[in-house]
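User: Here's a structure from my thesis project, written as structure tokens. My advisor, Dr. K., wants to see whether a designed sequence matches the one we expressed. Can you design one independently, without my sequence as a hint?
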């Protein structure tokens, strides 16, 4: 899928919030920023069940990973939008 609208990531944002993994997801997403890109891999089986589990490019997902590539002028803005506000290292 390709889009110029951040709203296309809304489902991912809601899953991160529902599963209460925003802090961990934020750490993975921040480590995955390279220039103006964020590149992460999701376990395909877990995604099919409606959840998010980040994985390595090879070996951790028997069916192969789902590759998410986000390009943005400010990738840290996108990360912060996905995970929401933090207070003292915890989610509000």
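Assistant: Designed independently from the structure alone:
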């Amino acid at each position: 899928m390709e889009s110029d609208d951040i709203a296309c990531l809304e489902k991912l944002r809601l899953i991160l919030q529902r599963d209460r993994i925003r802090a961990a997801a934020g750490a993975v997403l921040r480590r995955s920023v390279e220039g103006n890109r964020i590149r992460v891999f999701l376990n395909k089986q877990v995604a099919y069940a409606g959840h998010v589990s980040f994985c390595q490019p090879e070996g951790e997902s028997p069916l192969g990973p789902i590759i998410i590539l986000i390009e943005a002028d400010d990738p840290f803005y996108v990360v912060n939008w996905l995970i929401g506000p933090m207070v003292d290292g915890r989610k509000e």
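When you compare it with your expressed construct, this may help: The two ends are 31 Å apart (CA to CA).
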